[in-house]
Design goal:
Elements lengths: L1 E2 L4 H10 L10 E6 L5 H13 L3 H5 L3 E6 L9 H22 L3 E4 L5 H15 L4 E5 L10 H6 L5 E4 L2 H6 L3 E3 L5
Parallel strand pairs: 1-2, 2-3, 4-5, 5-6, 6-7
Helix pairs in contact: 4-5
Length: about 180
């Protein structure tokens, strides 16, 4: 399960995926917010470009796209975002239950927060094993994003792209620029 976000989050995630052996991670499920008009299109274009000529391309569909509610719109007040986040969490519980992902890969869009919390609830309550990997945006040089701070206690791995962040946060791993 790959969580995409509007703007730079999707560009960074697709750059990261472009460095991975995609045949090893099949099928892929992309998650996009319902108000994100571009990420699904970019994921489809990415898949068309990277899977062209792959033997898997002709045998099966290697990816799908799931649309979810956004936790918080840009500029939305924190008070009203409590309700929209709760609604997104309920929907995420259903998606994570239904899809039962082995891996959740995210890099900071707010959409990933309820999805990761849903996976964590199933991990604790039902002993389902979903590995959660968070790759902090290259833009975060000195501090972690709010999404990373919220998810930090439940993540399996937290990757940062600047050595100063790894020094500041003991659970963060620095392996150079990833996206």
């Amino acid at each position: 399960m790959i969580v995409l976000g509007s703007g730079g989050h999707t560009a960074e995630m697709l750059a990261l995926l472009g460095r991975l052996p995609l045949q090893r991670y099949t099928p892929r499920l992309y998650v996009c917010a319902d108000t994100d008009n571009h990420s699904a299109q970019k994921a489809t274009a990415f898949e068309s470009e990277h899977m062209l000529g792959s033997p898997l391309n002709n045998l099966q569909k290697t990816y799908s796209i799931l649309v979810t509610r956004r936790s918080r719109e840009v500029g939305q007040s924190y008070v009203t975002s409590l309700f929209t986040t709760l609604r997104a969490l309920l929907q995420s519980l259903w998606f994570v239950w239904k899809e039962n992902p082995d891996l959740i890969l995210c890099n900071g869009p707010g959409t990933c927060v309820p999805i990761c919390f849903a996976a964590f609830l199933f991990k604790v309550l039902l002993f389902r094993r979903t590995t959660m990997i968070y790759v902090e945006s290259i833009c975060r040089v000195q501090t972690l994003s709010l999404s990373a701070l919220l998810l930090r206690p439940i993540l399996d791995r937290l990757f940062v792209q600047w050595p100063a962040l790894a020094e500041r946060y003991s659970d963060a791993e620095f392996h150079g620029r990833l996206a």
